[in-house]
Backbone:
């Protein structure tokens, strides 16, 4: 008998949520065993302990911004790398037991975030319905499928959840794409123990955290200049408390490019010189596949030529 070498990856649970749907779309975890984790912290802890090969967690949403629980885990604790990302449309579906019509719905259950994004549709289509809030959209779907009673003692008629939840719990969709923002996307990332980044593809993203040495006028400008002077575009920058005292902040940054790109590498060296610490979080292929333009004077060849010129002057 041979030992089962199938890797196990975690994701923010429970089952049948948008995070599991994102994990199923990631080629990096294809064929792996997937297990739900109760919280983002639990997922990171299991990866750091070596119990999981990696974990898929939400990082930011196009409507609500960053997921602070994930961002703070990346900023603090033992370093982990982001090794893959996927952009998943946030499509909310109204799920019912087979045979239930839209006109029959009086009691709905869902997660607070889903309720907020579907409030307008509910008011227009089901103005007499009451909406109760649960721990997750998947739990809401499970409650409808199992005919679990709500706080008033009667089972729910419908759940607002991800389409995957309908497939998992045998429910039917009586309305689809009922969120207020039909273009809403959530960015999910795969975090793993630190590893050597893959080769650059030309469509890459790098993530890092810059910890300022001391709070002084122009501290943020000094960080931004390291990227601007080398032609590195930032796709996201956000300040977060370090957790080491009031007023102590760091900057979580995503940039276009790979650490193997000369412009990105030199920008990171610049940060290393002026910051108290720089935490590299990985370089990985962009989910959107975009190849950003490289400004004149900032290509790898341009940096090599400049270095050769300086060597000649010195020699």
Residues:
């Amino acid at each position: 008998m041979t030992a089962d070498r199938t890797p196990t990856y975690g994701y923010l649970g429970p089952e049948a949520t948008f995070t599991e749907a994102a994990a199923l779309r990631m080629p990096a975890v294809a064929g792996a065993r997937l297990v739900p984790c109760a919280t983002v912290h639990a997922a990171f802890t299991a990866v750091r302990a070596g119990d999981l090969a990696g974990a898929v967690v939400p990082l930011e949403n196009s409507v609500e911004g960053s997921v602070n629980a994930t961002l703070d885990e990346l900023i603090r604790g033992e370093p982990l790398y982001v090794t893959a990302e996927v952009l998943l449309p946030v499509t909310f579906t109204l799920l019912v037991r087979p045979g239930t019509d839209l006109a029959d719905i009086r009691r709905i259950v869902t997660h607070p975030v889903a309720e907020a994004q579907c409030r307008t549709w509910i008011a227009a289509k089901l103005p007499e319905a009451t909406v109760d809030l649960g721990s997750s959209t998947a739990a809401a779907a499970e409650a409808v499928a199992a005919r679990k009673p709500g706080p008033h003692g009667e089972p729910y008629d419908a759940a607002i959840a991800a389409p995957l939840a309908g497939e998992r719990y045998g429910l039917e969709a009586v309305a689809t794409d009922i969120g207020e923002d039909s273009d809403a996307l959530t960015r999910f990332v795969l975090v793993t123990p630190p590893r050597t980044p893959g080769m650059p593809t030309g469509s890459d993203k790098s993530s890092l955290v810059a910890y300022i040495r001391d709070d002084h006028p122009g501290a943020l400008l000094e960080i931004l200049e390291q990227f601007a002077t080398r032609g590195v575009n930032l796709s996201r920058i956000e300040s977060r408390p370090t957790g080491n005292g009031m007023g102590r902040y760091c900057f979580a940054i995503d940039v276009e490019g790979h650490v193997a790109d000369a412009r990105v590498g030199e920008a990171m060296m610049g940060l290393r010189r002026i910051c108290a610490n720089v935490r590299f979080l990985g370089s990985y292929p962009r989910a959107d596949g975009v190849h950003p333009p490289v400004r004149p004077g900032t290509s790898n060849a341009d940096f090599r030529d400049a270095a050769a010129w300086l060597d000649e002057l010195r020699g």
Notes: The chain has nine helices and 15 strands.
